[in-house]
TrEMBL record:
PANTHER family: FATTY ACYL-COA REDUCTASE, MALE STERILITY PROTEIN 2-RELATED
Catalyzed reactions: a long-chain fatty acyl-CoA + 2 NADPH + 2 H(+) = a long-chain primary fatty alcohol + 2 NADP(+) + CoA
Pfam families according to UniProt: NAD_binding_4, Sterile
Membrane-spanning segments: 355-374, 475-496
Protein name: Fatty acyl-CoA reductase
Organism: Pseudolycoriella hygida
Gene Ontology MF: a single term: alcohol-forming long-chain fatty acyl-CoA reductase activity
Residues in Thioester reductase (TE) domain copies: 24-286
Length: 498
């Protein structure tokens, strides 16, 4: 709730602040800025051409996503403000041409959120993308004479050894300059020495994002920087579509895997609190942070916000898995391979035995049947990938962090009353949990698995069929175990003295 009772009329509203501005973006935010700040001048979007798509075609594909439907209905011409800029964060100078640099000369706000979030990237690739890419972005920002704000999007997990993460800068976790040189000159050697070089951090992602913050700190005397640290960003709470998502990160991946019936066991602590943030909550707060930095002077060279929610709403990993199982009968998946379900165990050996029995053995049986039927075999390969993903996530589902977010919460009080309808982001505290996760599963079904809502009745019939098959198979399996273990082995006769 906004508690700012005395508002300064000389301070512009958020749409007024962005009116007429040129903005440079290397990631998300586009739809919200166009919809809620329609009078901005242009949004320059760094786009890397693909093999079969040029940058104009990639922007056209982006605009065809369902999230842009509201803008198409209300003000379709605003989409023309999306200007693709050919470039690549992994290249020196961002791969920008001189003409494009000249085109962006009036940019006054920069949002830098482009990064590789893969946990298994080779170290040299993660360094080039996440750390050197940040340096190149900062160097380009120095050439922008009208720059007022640069928002560097980090992560709350940038310093995973810190059990309590405050909204401040931290000492370096490594030499970012030396690491970039090693990645450029000796990539293979750096990859071989990864575990030792990153000092046994969970993965290359957290290490290189920590280094990227040090890059931002290096430029604090020359650029107006905000370090914005979201936790795990997942499905939209309200905007632009409830449940909208475009990746399998965090609890949504767990929900989908359980709903498809391919995840039966996970090694972790079911009582660990998961910190995740709806994508629209994160985006709105990021825009508000930029507005505040641009309209209200501060003596701080770098302002830091931890965009986290676990201190206000606590959801354990076990709760999320249970919620997914409970909702799976209402929103089942078309591509369901078995009855939805899943469990999380603290015991490594218990998890390994369950994985062999419920994942790997089942996968080999099903793939053998597929082979006999002449169908494509994929389940064994998929289960190996799931096992690898579980290994990568173990540190995060067995470790408890506290992300202090006082500045993030107080930032909401700065929003002017006229902006609350478009930029209020504290509603995650009062949101209905079951309804939110229902939208999460429905959104994952629509936007990740590309399944149609009209197929839901058929999917529900399939769910009931899978439920029956699961009971029959378990009955036969347990009966067989009892038969061979007791009757066939003569154990019953021995006990009865026959």
């Amino acid at each position: 709730m906004n508690t700012n009772m005395t508002e300064d009329d000389s301070i512009p509203t958020i749409p007024e602040f962005f009116k007429g501005r040129d903005i440079f973006i290397t990631g998300v935010l586009i739809e919200k800025l166009l919809r809620s700040c329609p009078d901005l001048n242009r949004i320059f979007i760094l786009v890397r051409p693909k093999k079969n798509q040029n940058i104009q075609e990639r922007i056209a594909a982006l605009q065809n996503l369902p999230i842009f439907d509201i803008i198409k209905d209300q003000d379709p011409k605003n989409l023309d403000k999306m200007i693709p800029i050919k470039g690549d964060v992994t290249e020196i100078g961002l791969g920008l041409s001189e003409d494009d640099k000249l085109l962006m000369a009036d940019v006054s706000v920069v949002f830098h959120s482009a990064a590789s979030v893969r946990f298994d990237d080779p170290l040299h690739e993660a360094v080039i993308m996440n750390t050197r890419g940040t340096r190149e972005l900062m160097l380009f920002a120095e050439t922008l004479t009208k720059l007022m704000i640069l928002v560097h999007v980090s992560t709350t997990y940038f310093n995973p050894r810190q059990s309590v993460v405050c909204e401040r800068m931290y000492p370096p976790n490594g030499d970012w300059k030396g690491t970039i040189k090693l990645a450029e000159q000796y990539p293979e050697i750096l990859d071989v020495l990864t575990e030792k070089y990153i000092n046994y951090e969970p993965n290359t992602y957290t290490f290189t994002k920590g280094l990227a913050e040090q890059v931002a700190i290096e430029f604090q005397d020359r650029l107006p920087i905000i370090i914005y640290r979201p936790s795990i960003v997942i499905s939209a709470l309200e905007e632009p579509i409830p449940g909208w998502i475009d990746n399998f990160n965090g609890p949504v991946g767990l929900l989908i895997a359980c709903a498809l019936g391919i995840l039966r066991t996970t090694h972790g602590d079911p009582d660990i609190v998961s910190d995740f943030t709806p994508v629209d909550t994160s985006i709105k707060a990021m825009i508000v942070a930029a507005w505040k930095r641009g309209t209200k002077p501060t003596s701080e060279k770098i302002v830091v916000y931890n965009c986290s929610t676990s201190l206000q709403r606590k959801f354990t990993t076990g709760f999320i898995i249970q919620m997914g199982e409970n909702l799976s009968s209402q929103i089942p998946m078309d591509k369901m391979l078995w009855k939805p379900g899943g469990s999380i165990t603290k015991c490594r050996y218990d998890n390994f035995i369950k994985f062999i029995l419920y994942h790997l053995c089942t996968a080999y049986v099903v793939d053998t049947i597929f082979k006999i039927l002449g169908r494509k075999q994929f389940l064994v390969k998929l289960q190996r990938r799931i096992y690898g993903a579980n290994l990568a996530l173990q540190h995060f589902i067995r470790t408890h962090w506290v992300f202090e977010n006082d500045c993030f919460l107080k930032l909401h009080n700065e929003i002017k009353s006229s902006d609350l309808s478009n930029f209020r982001y504290d509603n995650f505290v009062t949101a209905d949990v079951r309804e939110y996760f229902l939208h999460c599963i429905l959104g994952a079904r629509r936007y990740l698995l590309h399944e149609k809502d009209e197929n839901l009745p058929r999917a529900r019939r399939n769910y009931r069929r899978m439920n029956l098959i699961d009971k029959v198979v378990k009955t036969v399996l347990y009966s067989g175990i009892i038969y061979f273990a007791f009757i066939r082995s003569g154990a019953v006769a021995y006990i009865l003295g026959l």
